[in-house]
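User: Show me a protein chain along with its predicted structure.
Assistant: Here is one chain, sequence first, then structure tokens.
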Amino acid sequence: MSCLDDLNLVGLRNDCGEDILTASSGYYVNDLSIPGLLELMAAAKDKSTATAQEEVIKQITNAKRLTLDLFRGHIGERYSAGTLLENETIGVYDPPRQMQSAQAFNVGVELKVQRNRYAQIQVHRIGIVTQSSVTVPVKAWDIYSGEELYSEDIATTAGVPTFANVEWLFAGRGEIRDIFIGYDATSVGTYRTLFGGVGCNSCNGGSMNLRHLQAYTRKKATGANPQGALTSQDGTSGLMLDVSLVCNMDNYICSYGPMLAPVVYYRAGQLICDYFTYSQRLSPKVAAYKEQWEALSGKYMDAWREQYEILLSNVSIPKGDCFKCQSKTQIISRLP
């Protein structure tokens, strides 16, 4: 899931001031004082399908999409949509291995992006090898917030590595991601898996440096928030992960959320006014505002352009492996 999916830059309230669409920025189209908007919101509550609300939300969504597409186009030539790490295996089972007893901890692997704030962790496959046939819920937590992000039940066969294909994406808003992937080992005995080759579990104190990604063997008390509760663990406790690290433009765009909000705000106002102006589904009472909508549409379009120019003038392209260097000078050669 992209960080943009839950970034509601502009919201909508009904005629009672209650949120229909909650804004993460504090911007609501109601504050544009569009004539007839509240009347339509009130009328929608009396119908089995809130058509007016749906159409206004659609215009807000369109405003966000159009603005983000323009922004992507602006920074696209400076962004490297490349893979920094491709399907790296973390955790290897090479029999015969020693058994690991059940323990009253969540055990697993911590994945932390190194330095690159605009890269996204992707987990493609999860495996586990257990001493007995059992179903193991493998979960992923955000270490900073403690939020459980994903869960996958893996039905194992005793002594046989069992895998599940997943598409776990850990994108941020320009911050370093720090993830813990593990399972409750209270009643699960496993066979020991190692980071890489023989003895690699003890390399660098139970860590594995993958250039842009650092992996650590970890455990935490069950029920405890991972933040500040992780301690070292011997081996990867039967876990095996296939992991990639890719540049994600959305991570960079999300870091501009506060500056994008006023841009989307005025574009949403313009689109809503245009919709009201040309819609054939409005009551005659509301349609009487047509001239005002036409005037406001032009006004909001001008404000949108102004805010968009302000945004672009403040864009700073950082240095890093996810960005291309662009020289400020050009060399022009002429053929004789």
